[in-house]
Specification:
This protein is mainly beta and about 180 residues long. Helix content is about 0%, strand content about 45%. The chain is built from no helices and 18 strands. Strands 9, 10, 12, 13, 14 and 15 form a six-stranded antiparallel β-sheet that branches. A four-stranded mixed β-sheet has the order 1-6-7-3, with no helix packed on it. It is elongated, with a radius of gyration of 23 Å.
């Protein structure tokens, strides 16, 4: 098996020699790469394709993601999705932002979303819907919610004491929909 680096759109071979394999396509009698990586040749089955350079995982319902709150409205929270550095995977998403509708925040009634989330909070959420139109999230489970919050008065990190969050810098107390995995206890 041979390996040679290629970029998307690079010519791999002709249809007279091979059939297009994984991450390859045929056009006008030629076979081209549809992904960047290394060329793979299967001489036995007469296939030529591309092994991607990086593992890219499609974001799907059920995936746990981390995000930063960028906007809080009456009916939803808009967040910016963060890459998962621990697993060193890159998720393919149509947008870098997602929406957390009020119905998916908690199993309890939520009167005001600003009592659950504030701009700048780091949250852990589960993807409920992923399409080209956008990504919807949920935080109704106990391990989901705010994992790090910041004081609205002085922007210092809030520490969890029981069920409330307290700023050690200015003494301000706040409430959030915290995750059981909250970072500062």
């Amino acid at each position: 098996m041979q390996q040679k680096p290629v970029l998307p759109g690079d010519a791999l071979s002709t249809e007279e020699e091979f059939e297009p394999g994984a991450n390859a396509f045929a056009e006008d009698g030629n076979i081209f790469a549809s992904a960047g990586g290394t060329v793979t040749v299967d001489a036995k089955h007469k296939l030529i394709g591309v092994q991607p350079a990086k593992h890219i995982k499609q974001i799907q319902p059920g995936t746990i993601v981390f995000a930063t709150v960028v906007f809080v409205k009456e009916s939803s929270v808009i967040v910016s999705l963060l890459p998962d550095k621990e697993k060193n995977e890159r998720l393919v998403i149509s947008q870098s932002s997602a929406m957390l509708p009020v119905r998916n925040v908690s199993r309890d009634y939520v009167e005001n979303l600003r009592d659950c989330f504030r701009i700048g909070d780091l949250i852990k959420a589960r993807v409920t819907k992923a399409s080209n139109l956008g990504v919807d999230l949920a935080t109704a489970e106990p391990e989901l919610g705010v994992v790090k919050a910041f004081c609205v008065k002085c922007r210092h990190p809030l520490h969890l004491f029981g069920l409330s969050l307290k700023c050690l810098n200015c003494g301000n107390s706040e409430q959030r929909k915290t995750s059981k995995d909250y970072l500062l206890k």
